[in-house]
C-alpha cells in the first residue's frame, strides 16, 4: 500500500462490504479516516463538526426533572445510535454530567475497530468505564419490549442521540423508514425519562415535513443548522441536528 492510502479493515457483512480507510488528504495534508459501505461513503474524519454538535446540542437541551426518581448521583444515562468513527460518543463522554453511555451499533466490525483502537481521535472510547458498546439493530431495539440495554430490559434514558441514516428520507435500509413516523418515534419516546431528549443528525437542510412528524410526538422541536468549513470545496457546508423534548 502507498503511504498516502491504507485500508485498515475490510469485511463482508449482511449490509454489504464495509471498509475503514486511512489516506492523506492533499488539500489539507492531514490523515483522513473514511468508512465505505459498498460503493457508498458513510463518514469521514474530515467532517466531524455536526457529529460533535449532535452530542452538544442534545445534551444542552437536557434539563432533569427534580421529581425524576431515576436520576441520581450516578449522572445522566445516554444512548447513541450508530457508533461510526466515534465522534458523537466521544463528545458525550466529554460532558461531566454523563454517568453512563450505551452505544448501539449494527455492525460488529465497527465495534472491533474501536476495541482495536484503529482510530486515534477517539482512542480509549471502548475502554472508558462509563461506556458500553452493544452490537444490535438500533431500530429493532427501539420497537422491542426490551429496549436498548440487554442487561436491563425496559431501561429508560435521559437522552437518545442518533446518527445512522443520511436523512429521515434517505435511509441506509428500507426497514429503517418506519422509525421516522409518529409510531416509530413514539416507541423511542417511551425509552426516555419524562424530561428526556431525542436528537438526530441529518445531512439535509431542515425538513418541515419531518418537523411536523416530530411535533406529533414531542412537546418541543428545534432544528439547528450546523455550518462547517469544507476544505474540498473551499466553501461552507451544513448539516441539521433536530432536538426534541
- pLDDT below 50 for ≥5 consecutive residues: which ranges? none
CATH topology, what is it called? Rossmann fold
CATH class: Alpha Beta
One letter per element, helices H and strands E, the order comes to EEEEHEHEHEHEHEHEE
For the largest beta sheet, what order do the strands appear in spatially? 7-6-5-8-9-11-10
Number of domains: 1
Give the overall pLDDT as a whole number: 91
Bin the helical content.
Answer: 10-25%
* CATH-defined superfamily: Vaccinia Virus protein VP39
Structure in words:
By secondary structure, the protein is α/β, with parallel strands linked by helices. 21% of the residues lie in helices and 36% in strands. It has helices at 49-60, 87-93, 108-115, 138-143, 182-189, 208-217; strands at 5-13, 16-25, 30-37, 40-44, 76-81, 98-105, 131-135, 157-162, 192-202, 221-230, 235-244. The strands form 2 sheets. It has a 7-stranded mixed β-sheet. β5 (76-81), α2 (87-93) and β6 form a beta-alpha-beta unit. α1 packs parallel to α2 and α5 packs across α6 (208-217).
